[in-house]
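Supplementary Methods. Inverse-folding protocol.

Structures were first reduced to a discrete structure-token string of length 286. This string, shown here, constituted the complete conditioning input.
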């Protein structure tokens, strides 16, 4: 019966080929956009929350390494040299980011989906993208050393950046890679062949989780303008950078009766600052 009903619309006498009057069904399931690979907050040396921030900005005090050195031999009766610690400061000023969404009442009445709520959820994901983008921008600007690779990142590039941190007395704890660098790692036989890598992780999962003791974390090139596919970073997570959240992601709903609309304003006050530049080494490739 249903087939006969649909067949009634299919006629060479009605309309032209390609524009047959067949009823359309919009399936009542929405496939959401795919999530991106982003940087977790645990990579930060510290995360300062809203309750810890008084005023619009604050400073972090850093002790300068080796400011008391050198320790010298003192001759009998000679004056003992005077030494004291030196300090530097980092000023943190959370900036406001925000976006609003407005939906007409007709759209909410006629839609098969909860449009306002889904818009808010999607905006929340974009704020997560923005956080990763800001982190990458900060560590790119604040990197203490850069290893220039070639067409692809090599093992020598990785170990050179590790050396940059160790030479400044920092510990390389994490390896952050863009999409193309992740591809380069997959093409290095040392990480693929079991007799060299000691496991089959790369072949079984398509990604190696640890290199030289460092967890490998990939970020999406689509996270923002600072996310470069051919870049990678080696950091000391206990010293590299910090996050400050003056206002966590906040949603405020509002009505606009004059326009017969409902909406929401989503805001966030956030900052990321590099603490010690020599705790970051960047690897570039082409």
């Amino acid at each position: 019966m249903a087939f006969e009903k649909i067949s009634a619309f299919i006629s060479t006498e009605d309309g032209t080929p390609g524009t047959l009057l067949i009823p359309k069904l919009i399936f009542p399931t929405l496939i959401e956009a795919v999530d991106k690979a982003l940087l977790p907050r645990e990579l930060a040396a510290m995360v300062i929350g809203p309750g810890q921030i008084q005023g619009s900005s604050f400073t972090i005090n850093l002790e300068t390494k080796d400011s008391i050195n050198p320790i010298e031999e003192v001759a009998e009766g000679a004056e003992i040299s005077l030494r004291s610690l030196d300090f530097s400061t980092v000023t943190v000023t959370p900036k406001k980011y925000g976006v609003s969404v407005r939906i007409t009442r007709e759209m909410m009445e006629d839609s098969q989906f909860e449009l306002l709520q889904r818009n808010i959820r999607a905006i929340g994901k974009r704020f997560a993208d923005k956080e990763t983008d800001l982190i990458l921008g900060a560590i790119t600007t604040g990197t203490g050393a850069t290893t220039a690779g070639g067409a692809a990142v090599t093992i020598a590039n990785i170990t050179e950046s590790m050396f940059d941190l160790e030479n400044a007395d920092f510990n390389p704890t994490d390896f952050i890679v863009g999409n193309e660098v992740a591809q380069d790692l997959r093409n290095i036989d040392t990480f693929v062949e079991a007799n060299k890598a000691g496991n089959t992780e790369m072949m079984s999962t398509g990604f190696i989780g640890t290199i030289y003791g460092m967890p490998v974390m990939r970020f999406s090139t689509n996270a923002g303008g600072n996310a470069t596919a051919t870049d990678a970073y080696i950091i000391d997570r206990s010293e590299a950078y910090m996050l400050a959240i003056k206002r966590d992601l906040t949603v405020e709903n509002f009505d606009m009766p004059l326009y017969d609309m409902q909406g929401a304003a989503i805001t966030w006050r956030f900052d990321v600052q590099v603490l010690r530049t020599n705790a970051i080494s960047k690897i570039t490739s082409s």
